[in-house]
């Protein structure tokens, strides 16, 4: 702050500094902090330009004189922490035994054990706590430590530990590699190893907790969200990109703990810099409370004697790459290269032996310092807190592991490593035992009656039970009756309405339902007006924990923008990643809180799975439930927006996620049937697999929405296909399969084929190409594995049994979408699709360009019929000429209505 400015009166400066030193000595650091804040505030009021202090010295944020008394028995906790570290390392090591070799990570938990254990012993509340359980996002690579603790707690056996990463071959005694709730649904709650997703989801989990509280669904005022992250992980844009939300919402129920071991997976995070200082500035600038835990208590005496701040200056100036090197060397090396930088610091450490220098711990390994930071984080109000804890990766594992660049990839220990580690941890395991089978060193458990284990269990009982633990029992919901679907079933009469609007009308009715209306959570990025959801603003209101404290510019309008503390709509702004994080938190509330929410995330379809597919994968892993609505879908319906907005592939991307049930409905009544099916499956309490997300693509092209057929084929709609309209004439047969916005084109093609060519075409609405394919694959798999049984016929094959003539499949997506089902039909099969990049133009021109319009369907059907002699050989050429097929300007399919 001062090195760029001249000091015109050093004597006066010295007097001010002496006064501050005297204040601290006489009144303590807390009083000094208040005086300094008061001076800065007065300086600002007097227009004295004082820069924002974004970084502080490289020392602990909490002074030694402000540390609370550590309430636990540190000696007991230290003993079983040693057992945890041994069992975690041995579990990974044994997983590398000959014939297994499944990998694992040893060093992350070794360096973070204290950070976790202080939390387990004193802070993390289980689900039986009177105030409700905390939500803890564990760092993915630290999972061995959580398994090691569960082993000491009696939740896992030795056989379970030996099943690490062998989920099928050791079924019944298997442990997933990382936190995967879908793989261990009673243990893990949050999938975190896809780095960057944990920080986002933790922020929105904290927001969701407040949302539940402010809307009166559940009292979450005593629940806290903890996210354990790596300093290398903070390079991910997702890790930092949503920090402002936590600050704006004043989420003081959220604490990030960043394990700053200064290393990524391959080497230093900032070898030539200081990642702790960078993160301090970043978080402080984003509005967070920052607590640095850099040095253990052994440094307190040295820092107290550092009257000229020479030691602090060395700490400030030392680069991360050097700090890493120091912990890979020796006490003598640290004395020479760290303390030896100035005569003053050399003298400070002169009374310490090399062993004592080596034992000057980093703050993240000190129970007292970590406890003080956690308590301060919980006590702090009005802001989220980040704790930046300085640690050593591979701490205690020996010279082959500690702080080495390669330590993240090291999976096993040598015999000597095992002996040294055993000695360092003071475990009663003999050399002979280790030498007997170096690939299978023993786990250590002193028995349930050991005082250390009793202490551990007492601490967990006092805090409300085990962590992590996942429970899926929840409040039952009364699902809507048929009346809620009336609007969807009666069509739009003479009025044109896009399927987006048909869905919004259905959503409006569902939100009025007494049983589930208040449980619905509409989630939108900054496109509510595009989707017609702005109609919800005045009544449902937009959730804002600060309310609406300004005079709205559109307050006199019927559809005024209204924010409220108890608002129902989660409006994430221009922020698809945040929207999916909000969706995940709401969609898993049934397990996290035992209170189901029904998230309905509506977004530009192009910016869904293409942009946030990894998050949807994590949502599936976390067993989220809800509806994902890809609005303004398709490659040609968005007209003027062009390439970057033209979605021709989202159903394919969605199909890669097994937890996604994907639909491409054409009409409002199809949407009603699908939504009803989804509600019953996810929240009805009877389906064997409710942990799915329903993905519906909807369009912005207005059409006449027909009434539901009198004998609506609900099963066909929900399973993927139904017979929409039979041919009205006799003649050569063909089958037109279409989905979504393409169904009206197929109906128009049906009329043209009949009127101009005497061809009898049946039209089928395919609501889900993906579900038809999955059903077909299931039938093939069953036949493969049970050759002694009669093969099951795929649903699509059953449905179209007896359907004569070639099949023409058409969608507003690329050809690969309908090609998913080609193998399940014996008919000749042709696909029309919008392959390639999108562009800006009229709908009619775009569809003619891609050859997916009504006349293209006609020509393609005639080509297929001509091959078999059912129409004259020259009919296709005549049709192509008649309809001017190669002329983009000759297209007529679709209309110009609908907003982009």
Automatic annotation (TrEMBL):
Domain called Pyruvate dehydrogenase E1 component middle: residue spans: 482-702
The EC number(s) this enzyme carries: 1.2.4.1
Domain annotation Transketolase N-terminal: ranges: 134-297
Keyword Oxidoreductase: yes
Requisite cofactors: thiamine diphosphate
Keyword annotations from UniProtKB, A to Z: Oxidoreductase, Pyruvate, Thiamine pyrophosphate
Entry-linked InterPro entries: PDC_E1_N (IPR035807), PDH/Transketolase (IPR051157), PDH_E1 (IPR004660), PDH_E1_M (IPR041621), THDP-binding (IPR029061), Transketo_C/PFOR_II (IPR009014), Transketolase-like_C_2 (IPR055152), Transketolase_N (IPR005474)
Positions of the Transketolase-like C-terminal domain: 720-853
MF annotations from Gene Ontology: pyruvate dehydrogenase (acetyl-transferring) activity
UniProt xrefs under SUPFAM superfamilies: Thiamin diphosphate-binding fold (THDP-binding) (SSF52518), TK C-terminal domain-like (SSF52922)
Reaction(s) the record says it catalyses: N(6)-[(R)-lipoyl]-L-lysyl-[protein] + pyruvate + H(+) = N(6)-[(R)-S(8)-acetyldihydrolipoyl]-L-lysyl-[protein] + CO2
Pfam families cross-referenced by the UniProt entry: PDH_E1_M, Transketolase_C_1, Transketolase_N
Gene3D superfamilies from the UniProt entry: 3.40.50.920, 3.40.50.970
Broad class of enzyme this protein falls into: oxidoreductase
Domain of life where this protein originates: Bacteria
PANTHER family: PYRUVATE DEHYDROGENASE E1 COMPONENT (PTHR43825:SF3)
Entry protein name: Pyruvate dehydrogenase E1 component
Organism of this sequence: Arthrobacter silviterrae
């Amino acid at each position: 702050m001062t090195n760029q400015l001249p000091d015109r009166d050093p004597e006066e400066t010295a007097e001010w500094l002496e006064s501050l030193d005297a204040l601290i000595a006489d009144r303590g650091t807390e009083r000094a902090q208040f005086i300094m804040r008061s001076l800065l505030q007065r300086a600002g009021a007097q227009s004295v330009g004082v820069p924002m202090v974004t970084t502080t010295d490289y020392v602990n944020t909490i002074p030694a004189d402000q540390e609370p008394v550590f309430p636990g028995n540190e000696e007991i906790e230290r003993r079983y922490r040693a057992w945890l570290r041994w069992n975690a390392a041995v579990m990974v090591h044994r997983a590398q035994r000959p014939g297994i070799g499944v990998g694992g990570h040893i060093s992350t938990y070794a360096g973070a054990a204290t950070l976790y254990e202080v939390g387990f012993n004193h802070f993390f509340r289980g689900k039986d706590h009177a105030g409700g359980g905390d939500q803890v996002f564990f760092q993915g690579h630290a999972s061995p430590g959580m398994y090691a603790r569960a082993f000491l707690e009696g939740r896992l056996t030795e056989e379970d530990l030996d099943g690490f990463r062998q989920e099928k071959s050791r079924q019944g005694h298997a442990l997933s590699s990382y936190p995967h709730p879908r793989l261990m649904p009673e243990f893990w709650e949050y999938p975190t190893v896809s780095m960057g997703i944990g920080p986002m989801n933790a922020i929105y989990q904290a927001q969701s907790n407040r949302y539940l509280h402010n809307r009166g669904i559940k009292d979450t005022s005593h629940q806290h969200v903890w996210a354990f992250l790596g300093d290398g992980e903070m390079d991910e844009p997702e890790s930092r990109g949503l920090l402002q939300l936590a600050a704006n919402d004043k989420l003081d129920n959220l604490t990030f703990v960043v394990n700053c071991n200064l290393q990524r997976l391959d080497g230093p995070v900032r070898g030539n810099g200081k990642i702790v200082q960078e993160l301090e500035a970043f978080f402080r600038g984003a509005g967070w409370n920052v607590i640095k835990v850099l040095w253990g208590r052994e440094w307190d005496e040295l820092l107290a004697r550092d009257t000229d701040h020479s030691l602090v200056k060395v700490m400030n100036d030392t680069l991360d790459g050097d700090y890493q090197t120091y912990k890979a060397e020796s006490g003598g090396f640290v004395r020479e290269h760290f303390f030896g930088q100035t005569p003053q610091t050399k003298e400070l450490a002169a009374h310490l032996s090399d062993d004592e220098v080596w034992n000057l711990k980093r703050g993240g390994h000190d129970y007292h310092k970590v406890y003080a930071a956690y308590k301060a984080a919980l006590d702090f109000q009005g802001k989220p807190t980040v704790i930046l804890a300085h640690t050593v990766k591979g701490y205690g594992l020996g010279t082959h592991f500690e702080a080495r660049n390669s330590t993240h990839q090291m999976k096993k220990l040598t015999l000597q490593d095992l002996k040294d580690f055993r000695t360092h941890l003071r475990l009663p395991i003999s050399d002979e035992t280790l030498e007997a089978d170096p690939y299978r060193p023993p786990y250590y458990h002193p028995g349930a009656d050991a005082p250390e284990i009793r202490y551990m269990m007492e601490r967990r009982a006092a805090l409300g039970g085990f962590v992590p633990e996942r429970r899926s029992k929840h409040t039952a919901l009364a699902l809507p009756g048929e009346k809620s679907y009336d609007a969807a079933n009666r069509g739009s009469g003479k009025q044109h309405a896009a399927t987006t609007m048909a869905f919004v009308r259905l959503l409006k009715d569902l939100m009025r339902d007494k049983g589930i209306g208040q449980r619905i959570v509409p989630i939108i990025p900054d496109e509510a007006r595009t989707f017609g959801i702005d109609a919800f603003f005045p009544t449902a209101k937009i959730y804002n924990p600060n309310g609406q404290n300004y005079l709205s510019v559109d307050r006199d309008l019927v559809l005024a923008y209204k924010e409220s503390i108890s608002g129902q709509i989660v409006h994430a702004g221009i922020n698809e990643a945040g929207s999916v994080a909000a969706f995940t938190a709401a969609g898993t509330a049934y397990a996290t809180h035992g209170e189901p929410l029904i998230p309905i995330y509506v977004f530009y379809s192009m910016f869904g799975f293409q942009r946030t597919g990894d998050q949807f994968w994590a949502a599936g892993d976390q067993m989220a439930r809800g509806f994902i609505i890809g609005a303004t879908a398709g490659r040609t319906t968005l007209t003027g927006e062009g390439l970057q907005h033209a979605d021709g592939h989202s159903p394919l991307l969605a199909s890669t996620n097994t937890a996604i049930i994907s639909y491409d409905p054409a009409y409002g009544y199809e949407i009603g049937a699908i939504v009803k099916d989804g509600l019953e499956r996810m929240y009805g309490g009877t389906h064997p697999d409710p942990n799915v997300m329903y993905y519906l693509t909807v369009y912005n092209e207005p059409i006449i929405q027909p009434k539901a057929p009198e004998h609506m084929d609900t099963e066909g709609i929900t399973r993927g296909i139904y017979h929409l309209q039979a041919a009205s004439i006799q003649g050569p047969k063909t089958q037109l399969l279409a989905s979504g916005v393409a169904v009206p084109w197929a109906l128009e093609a049906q009329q043209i084929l009949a009127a101009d060519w005497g061809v009898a075409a049946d039209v089928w609405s395919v609501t889900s190409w993906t579900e038809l394919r999955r059903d077909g694959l299931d039938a093939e798999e069953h036949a493969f594995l049970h050759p002694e049984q009669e093969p099951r016929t795929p649903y699509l094959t059953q449905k179209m049994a007896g359907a004569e003539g070639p099949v023409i499949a058409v969608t507003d997506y690329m050809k690969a979408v309908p090609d998913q089902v080609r193998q399940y039909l014996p008919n000749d099969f042709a696909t029309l699709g919008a392959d390639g990049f999108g562009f800006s133009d009229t709908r009619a021109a775009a569809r003619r360009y891609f050859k997916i319009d009504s006349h293209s369907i006609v020509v393609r059907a005639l080509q297929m019929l001509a091959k078999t002699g059912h129409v004259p050989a020259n009919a296709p050429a005549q049709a192509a000429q008649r309809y001017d097929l190669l002329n983009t300007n000759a297209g007529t399919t679709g209309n110009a209505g609908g907003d982009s």
